[in-house]
């Protein structure tokens, strides 16, 4: 299968306009209709983009978190008369950025990478402007690190699917939920990174993409991304997954994750748990693809993962009197329903993810 990954735009990156740093992000709210870009030097605009899902996906919002702290550092270096005041105000901004969305641990991880870099720079006697420049360098490094991790995840995931395709004697039908693709990362994607790597080996016959209500990351983002890349794709409603599995069309499920607890329980887009239960019923392997930065050793199990409750209007745009709405943006798949977690370091049983991530 000839892929066209060069058709995929980069999701988030940084650039200079003169000396001014800019964060450039695809505004994913406009896809698939329009490819629009947000370009800003204001950290508050980056936080708003995360909150409004203009930029979304665990690794992508981790990078956005670090980038927002970086933009704040450049502004504060101009405003603050002392390093102490700069440090205090940067810490306050960082805390605000980290609160933008609660479930994906990558956001806190990205902000922490930035605050640690800033503390090291200031501790080494660097100026506040030099500290801001160090954060710009960090943001570029995180973007490169993320893409490299995604390509490694893809390779490890393709190895698993190679064995499945060999056993089946044919290319595979895969199901995915939400968007854990290039659009959810700096580039290439995690679950879709596995798809791309496997597709390049001729291991993929077709991807079945859940529409993923209520925000439609599958219907708006995944099918657009896979079509751009040239992967045969079928869009299905979320309530069709069982029928596709019963018809023997699905050989494996590959999804992303927003936070993986120390015991291997994994939080991902709402609806993932249902897919995992169905996969278990039909004897279909269920893979979670995520970088090690998505593993949160401070969260012992899935019950401790904070689940974002988003606005009711995403589910019911016109409120009905007497009708309440729930809109949890994520659910938690227990480790026992996960066949393997595929990371950049390799594939591992979810039960072993804690020790694996510590290495
Ligand atoms: C590669 S992780 C992507 C992950 O993030 C999505 O959530 P959201 O679109 O709300 O940021 C979804 O859970 C994906 O699996």
UniProtKB/TrEMBL annotation:
Q: What class of enzyme is it?
A: isomerase
Pathway named in the protein's UniProt entry: Amino-acid biosynthesis; L-methionine biosynthesis via salvage pathway; L-methionine from S-methyl-5-thio-alpha-D-ribose 1-phosphate: step 1/6
Residues recorded as binding substrate, renumbered to this chain, are 56-58, 101, 217, 268-269
Reactions mediated catalytically:
5-(methylsulfanyl)-alpha-D-ribose 1-phosphate = 5-(methylsulfanyl)-D-ribulose 1-phosphate
Q: What is its EC number?
A: 5.3.1.23
**Which keywords does this Swiss-Prot/TrEMBL entry list?**
Amino-acid biosynthesis, Isomerase, Methionine biosynthesis
Residue(s) at site: Transition state stabilizer: 178
Do you know which InterPro entries this protein is assigned to? IF-2B-related, IF-M1Pi, IF_2B-like_C, Initiation_fac_2B_a/b/d, M1Pi_N, NagB/RpiA_transferase-like
Q: Which Gene3D superfamilies does this chain map to?
A: translation initiation factor eif-2b, domain 1, Translation initiation factor eif-2b, domain 2
Q: Which GO terms describe its biological process?
A: L-methionine salvage from methylthioadenosine
- Family matches, as HAMAP family: Salvage_MtnA (MF_01678)
Q: Which PANTHER family match?
A: METHYLTHIORIBOSE-1-PHOSPHATE ISOMERASE
What does the function comment of this entry state? Catalyzes the interconversion of methylthioribose-1-phosphate (MTR-1-P) into methylthioribulose-1-phosphate (MTRu-1-P).
Q: What's the protein here called?
A: Methylthioribose-1-phosphate isomerase
Q: Which gene encodes it?
A: mtnA
